[in-house]
From TrEMBL:
Acts on ADP-mannose and ADP-glucose as well as ADP-ribose. Prevents glycogen biosynthesis. The reaction catalyzed by this enzyme is a limiting step of the gluconeogenic process. It is an enzyme of class 3 (hydrolase). Pfam families: NUDIX. CDD domains: NUDIX_ADPRase. NCBIfam families: nudix-type nucleoside diphosphatase, YffH/AdpP family. SUPFAM superfamilies: Nudix. InterPro entries: NDP_pyrophosphatase, NUDIX_hydrolase-like_dom_sf, NUDIX_hydrolase_dom. This is ADP-ribose pyrophosphatase. It catalyses: ADP-D-ribose + H2O = D-ribose 5-phosphate + AMP + 2 H(+). Keywords: Hydrolase, Magnesium, Metal-binding. The lineage of its organism: Bacteria, Pseudomonadati, Pseudomonadota, Alphaproteobacteria, Rhodospirillales. It comes from the Bacteria. Residues 56-194 form the Nudix hydrolase domain. Belongs to the Nudix hydrolase family. NudF subfamily.
Length: 212
């Protein structure tokens, strides 16, 4: 078990973090690290010692597939065991997403997952942002893009068999996707962010992509 003792860092000059101990009690496909730390308080001084487990599952990228010519989006639907465990409907409407491999960047991941999960070849990518998903207990970030649909290989289902993926796609008007979000049918947070962004930037991105 690897341990780092008494490391003090300064993040963006906003405050001090004293890591008393970091250990890794579990390492499998994912990893759990345990931190013992103190951090600076807004009123001055340091907090009491805090112990937290952090879920390390890597960093991810996601892409909202958008056809500027037809003003349509392609969303995917698949079973999510975490949603089932939370007591929610487990077949979620989502944007394409995946974990970034060590030898690829977020843009490459977006291209790869678009083909694997939806059969889509995509062109230009517009960066929406990078977001922490559950910063209270995980280090995971998601780099989110809007991707230009160039073509789609039509199939009944998509995904990789060896990863247990069973995915279908839905091509709908962008305006209909906003209604899905506004009526609570989209419960995946990164998908909601992507659709809200498109609703605000639809005219700008269509003008940009159609004029080039």
């Amino acid at each position: 078990m690897r341990k780092n003792q008494n490391v003090i860092g300064d993040l963006n000059n906003l405050g001090k973090i004293e890591v008393i101990e970091k250990s890794t009690p579990f390492k499998g496909y994912f990893q759990v690290d345990t931190y013992r730390f103190r951090h600076s308080l807004f009123e001055g001084g340091l907090s009491q010692e805090i112990t937290r487990e952090i879920f390390e599952r890597g960093h991810a990228a996601a892409v909202l597939l958008f056809d500027a010519k037809t003003d349509e989006v392609i969303l995917i639907e698949q079973f999510r065991p975490g949603a089932y465990a939370a007591g929610m409907a487990p077949w979620l409407i989502e944007v394409v997403a995946g974990i970034i491999e060590p030898d690829e960047n977020a843009e490459d991941l977006a291209q790869r997952e678009a083909m694997e999960e939806s059969g889509c070849k995509i062109g230009r990518l517009e960066k929406i942002g990078t977001f922490l998903m559950t910063p209270g207990g995980s280090s995971e970030t998601i780099a989110l893009f809007c991707g230009e649909i160039l073509s789609q290989e039509i199939k009944d289902t998509y995904g990789l068999d060896h990863e247990g993926e069973d995915i279908r796609t839905h091509r709908i008007k962008a305006s209909e996707s906003y209604k899905l979000m506004n009526t609570g049918k989209v419960t995946n947070a990164i998908t909601a962010i992507a659709l809200q962004w498109l609703e605000l930037n639809n005219e700008r991105i269509r003008t940009k992509w159609l004029s080039d």
